[in-house]
Amino acid sequence: MNARTNHRFRTWLARGSAALALVAFAGVASSVGPTPASANTQSSSDANASLPETIVLTGIARDFRERSVTSGHPDFERQPTRGFGHYVGLASDTLDADGKPTLATTGYKVTAQAQDANRRNIMPVTKPYIASRQGDTRGTLETQLGGAVVSAQSFAQWYRDVPGVNVSTTVPITLRRQPGTNIYTFDDKSDSLYRSRSGFFPINGQLFGNSGGGGVANTNYHFTYELTTKFTYKRGSGQVFTFAGDDDVFVYVDGRLVIDLGGVHGAISQTIDLDRLTWLNDNQEYELKLFFTERHRTQSNMRIDTTLTLRSADLPATSALFD
Fold first, then answer.
1. Does residue 289 sit within a domain?
2. Whole-angstrom Cα distance, residue 298 to residue 49?
C-alpha cells in the first residue's frame, strides 16, 4: 500500500468510526431518551392521578361490657328473638338533634336481599327519599318484629358516652386509592394493622380490656365505632358508597338513612348510589355518618369501597374521652 492509499484508508477508517460512534450514541439515546415520555404516557393514562393516594378519617370507638357481666350492656351478646341474622328497621330514617340514630323498631329479619341491576345489595325497604331504578329487585322480610334490641334507652347508649356504661377513644382508619381508579378502600383483611388482628378490632388491650373467648384470641369484642365525614356531591359522576361487614351498620347521608345492616350477622354488603338521593344539590357539601356496632364474639369485619373523596369532619360531641 503506497503512502497516498494509506492516507486515504486512514481517513475512511476515521470517518467510519465516527459514523459508528454516532449511530451507537443514537441507539443509546433512543433507549434512554423515551423513558420520561413513556412514564408520562403511563401517568397520564391515570385520569385520577391528581387524587390523594390515601384518606385518613378519625372516628370514636366506645367499649362496652357484655350483658352477662356486672354493669354489662343488655344488647351485647344478645340473641334476637327471631334468631341471629340481618334485621332492618332498627334505626330511624333520620338522625336526632344530637346527630344520632334512634330506635324505630326492634327490627324485621331479612329473608332475601334486595339488589340493583348490577347485583349489588341495596336497602330492602323502599324509602321515599331514595329513587328506585329499572332492574331493582325487592327483598323480603319477616312480618313479625325480631327483638334485636332491648329498648330505645339501651339503643341510645350505643353511640353516646355514658359513664359507667362505656368508655371511648379516638381511632383513625386509612382508605387507600385503588391504582388507576378513583375508588378508595378500607379493608381489615388488607390493612397492615387489622390483618395482624384477624379482623376489625380497633381497641384490643384498651379501655375495658379484652373480652375473652370468641373466635379470635386476645381480642376486645363489644364496641361501637362512629365516623363522621364530609364530601362534595357531583351529580352524574358515579359516586357510590359500599359497606361490607358486621354486626349492625347504619350509614346516613345528610341525616337520612341510606344503608341499613342491623342485627347480629356475618359480613353483608350494601351499596348506595348517591344519584338516587334526589334532594342532593350538585357541587354542594354534605355529611356522611357511619355507625358500626360489634356485639357478638365471633368475628368483626369492615370493608368500605367508595368513589367519594371523603374529608374528616369535627368529631361528634362526647361527654368525655378516656385514654
1. yes
2. 40
Q: What is the pLDDT of residue 314?
A: 77
Residues 135, 33 within the same domain: no
Q: Are residues 146 and 295 in the same domain?
A: yes
Which pLDDT score is estimated for 89?
97
Cell digits of residue 301 = 369485619
Residue 283 resides in a domain: yes
User: Do 21 and 84 belong together in one domain?
Assistant: no
Do 185 and 264 reside in the same domain of the chain?
yes
pLDDT at 47: 87
What are residue 167's phi and psi, to 5 degrees? -135, 155
Give per-10-residue mean pLDDT for the chain (323 aa).
43 41 35 38 71 96 95 95 96 97 98 97 95 96 96 98 96 96 97 94 95 84 97 97 96 98 96 97 98 93 97 70 50
- Are 57 and 228 a contacting pair, CB within 8 Å? no
- Residues of the domain holding 137: 54-312
CB 164 within 8 A of CB 320: no
In the DSSP assignment, the letter for residue 276 is: G
DSSP bridge partners of 289: 228, 252
- Number of structural domains (the chain) is 2
Gap between the Cα atoms of 289 and 296, Å rounded: 23
Show contacts of 157-160: CB within 8 Å, 24+ apart.
157/73, 158/62, 158/75, 158/224, 158/291, 158/293, 159/62, 159/100, 159/101, 159/224, 159/226, 159/291, 159/316, 160/98, 160/100, 160/318, 160/319
**Does 243 lie in the same domain as 125?**
yes
Residue 281's Cβ-side half-sphere holds a number of Cα atoms within 13 Å equal to 3
| Residue 223: strand pairing partners | 63, 294
Tell me if 250 is assigned to some domain: yes
